[in-house]
Design brief:
Blueprint: H1 2-11, H2 15-18, H3 22-42, E1 46-49, H4 68-72, E2 81-85, E3 89-90, E4 94-95, E5 106-111, E6 118-120, E7 122-124, E8 129-132, E9 135-139, E10 147-149, E11 152-153, E12 155-156, E13 168-172, E14 175-179, E15 189-192, E16 196-201, E17 204-209, E18 212-214, E19 219-224, E20 228-233, E21 236-238, E22 243-247, E23 256-262, E24 265-267, E25 274-277, E26 279-280, E27 283-285, E28 288-290, H5 299-302, E29 305-310, E30 318-320, E31 323-325, E32 331-336, E33 343-345, E34 348-350, E35 357-360, E36 366-368, E37 371-373, E38 382-388, E39 403-405, E40 408-410, E41 415-421, E42 433-435, E43 438-440, E44 446-451, E45 460-462, E46 474-476, E47 481-482, H6 485-492, E48 505-507, E49 512-515, E50 534-536, E51 548-550
Parallel strand pairs: 1-2, 2-5, 3-6, 4-16, 5-17, 6-18, 12-13, 16-19, 17-20, 18-21, 19-22, 20-23, 21-24, 22-25, 23-26, 23-27, 24-28, 25-29, 27-30, 28-31, 29-32, 30-33, 31-34, 32-35, 33-36, 34-37, 35-38, 36-39, 37-40, 38-41, 39-42, 40-43, 41-44, 42-45, 44-46
Antiparallel strand pairs: 7-15, 8-9, 9-14, 10-11, 10-15, 13-14, 46-47, 48-49, 50-51
Length: about 575
């Protein structure tokens, strides 16, 4: 009956419409569609922001806006670009007001020449008065977590009496006290006053490109309440109190999806370089995370890493081509209670205070092609650590079905590769496969430690190099040591096809773990399938010049370790 009603309405249309040819109707709709497409494209604009601008301006490059506050209160359209002038600094918090859409992200970037535009969480402090020689004070309404003296991080002290050296500071009752070797009127003293440089809450389809974030009272960049399709590209986030780049799971109620974090730098943050909670289907590629984990005390500072992913909703992420180094009290790369399907590949983790790579209570992770060395800050520091725990909830769970392939692990402090039930209760660390790895040169412990009951569970060790035999170089069961491959295999119950040799790196003291032409690792590995066929070229440089080689094209068989030797002349990927 509805269709008949529609037909009656059409039959009463004016006669001139009824005479229009079908071809003319088609042409009309095409032209109309083009008009709408052009109109839609016209809605996307580029807005400019400059320290020499004015918020009453039109926002063009010739007449730019002045403040981030103007951006925050603007209604932005999909496809818009908001560009900050290079060399400028904004002491405000960017709270993104709008979302883009598929194919039309809103882009926050830079224009002009010079240094990246800076969004700072700190204010310059003025109005100084003297208390006694070298001690000065000024009113600061928000308690700062960090104070900077001419861009150098100051040292927080307990009280005024403790101020004894240049750049010491303390705060109480809305007053900042500093020790300054010269009058503070002649230097730039900044105190963190805003929690974030950029905050994204529940927005989608955004890109942040070529910006510098610094001195956040908490984090440099925070995404919360289920942010999706966020790209962070060539961003620098540094000297923030907690984290350089952070995603929040909003108390376990949301998942942040489809992030791309690439070619960025996170450094000198008090906690982690990146702390990504409940992040899924994302790519973390080609970043440098260095000199983070500077503070101590509390989860934000004691459970830290260059790149740390947390939560069982963190699934199907790829962490590749990153360099994670010199985290003071932290791990290089840490999967902490994650879901399955994550990949850690072709990263370099070195000189971290704790482990190079830590796969904690996480199953189904693929860890391959990484170089992890000189992680030696703690007695348990390991190149790669895979841990399950079978004890009391909530700090318990399995580490099952992880694949550790073709990694190079050298010179770590406590252990090379550690696989164990962390609480000593067997049953949740099994079916892990460790093949084609080089694990040598551990400083104070063993090259391989399998314990806490994991030595009694089914795990596979095949075609690895643990170096030449030496006293107690393998720990099979806690405090049960093996000094030969034969005694280890007797305890393990099967042949491991291990190579009992020196791998012959080109220059391990200089961090070059590519293989000499005489290395016994060449053509000594086994084929692990096309998903893992690429190895590192000796020409690789982290984090932006990673070259991989198809192992099937480089010799009679795969090499052991992260690198694939070619002798020159083979194609790269």
């Amino acid at each position: 009956m509805g269709y008949g009603h529609s037909h009656n309405r059409v039959s009463r249309l004016p006669a001139w419409i009824m005479k229009i040819k079908a071809s003319e109707i088609f042409t009309f709709f095409i032209l109309t569609s083009c008009v709408f497409l052009i109109a839609g494209s016209a809605n996307a604009r580029t807005w400019y922001v400059s320290n020499s601008g004015n918020d009453s301006n039109s926002g063009t490059q010739a007449l730019p806006w002045l403040t981030i506050a103007k951006v925050n209160r603007s209604s932005l359209n999909p496809g818009d670009q908001i560009l900050f002038e290079r060399g400028g600094i904004w002491r405000e918090e960017l709270s993104v007001p709008s979302s883009g859409n598929a194919g039309k992200p809103i882009i926050f970037g830079a224009y002009g020449t010079g240094n990246k535009p800076v969004i700072s969480g700190a204010d310059i402090i003025s109005g100084w008065s003297g208390v006694r020689p070298n001690i000065y004070y000024a009113a600061v309404g928000v308690q700062p977590h960090r104070v900077f003296f001419d861009n150098a991080l100051g040292t927080r002290r307990a009280n005024v009496k403790s101020l004894a050296s240049d750049k010491d500071w303390t705060w109480f009752s809305n007053i900042l006290y500093v020790y300054s070797a010269s009058p503070p009127t002649g230097r730039v003293i900044e105190a963190s006053q805003r929690p974030y440089a950029i905050i994204v809450t529940g927005r989608s389809h955004l890109e942040f490109v070529n910006l510098e974030l610094r001195y956040g009272g908490l984090d440099g960049f925070l995404a919360a309440k289920g942010a999706t399709y966020i790209t962070i590209d060539r961003l620098t986030s540094r000297y923030n109190y907690w984290t350089g780049i952070k995603t929040s799971d909003n108390g376990g109620t949301v998942v942040n999806r489809k992030f791309v974090i690439r070619d960025s730098v996170v450094d000198h943050n008090g906690g982690s370089g990146m702390l990504l909670s409940a992040v899924a289907n994302s790519l973390i590629h080609g970043n440098l995370a260095t000199n983070n984990a500077m503070e101590r005390g509390g989860e934000q500072f004691d459970w830290t890493a260059g790149i740390r992913l947390t939560g069982t909703d963190s699934v199907a992420n790829i962490i590749e081509n990153n360099e994670c180094s010199y985290q003071g009290n932290g791990v290089g790369i840490w999967l902490d209670f994650n879901g399955s399907g994550n990949i850690i590949r072709f990263n370099k983790t070195h000189h971290n205070g704790y482990h190079g790579i830590f796969n904690e209570i996480t199953s189904g992770t693929e860890i391959y092609g990484n170089v992890s060395y000189d992680n030696a800050g703690q007695s348990l520091s390991s190149g790669i650590y895979v841990e399950g725990r079978n004890g009391h909830p909530p700090l318990n769970g399995a580490a099952v079905g992880n694949k550790v392939y073709n990694n190079t692990i050298y010179g770590n402090g406590g252990f090379g590769l550690m696989l164990q039930n962390g609480d000593g209760i067997a049953g949740v660390t099994h079916d892990n496969v460790i093949k084609n790895n080089i694990i040598t040169g551990t400083l104070s412990g063993t090259n391989l430690r399998v314990g806490g009951g994991a030595e009694k569970e089914y795990n596979v060790f095949d075609h690895n190099i643990l170096g030449t035999e030496r006293w107690n170089f393998i720990e099979w069961g806690w405090r049960k040591y093996k000094s030969s491959y034969a005694s280890w295999e007797a305890a393990y119950g099967r042949n491991t096809n291990s190579l009992k040799v020196d791998p012959q790196f080109v220059n391990p003291l200089a961090g070059d773990f590519s293989l000499k032409p005489t290395s016994p690792c060449i053509d000594a590995g086994i084929n692990l399938g096309d998903s893992y066929k690429f190895g590192l070229s000796a020409s690789s440089r982290w984090p932006h010049q990673i070259v991989t080689l198809d192992r099937n094209e480089c010799g009679a068989a795969w090499d052991i370790g992260a690198y694939e030797y070619t002798g020159g002349g083979f194609p790269s990927n």
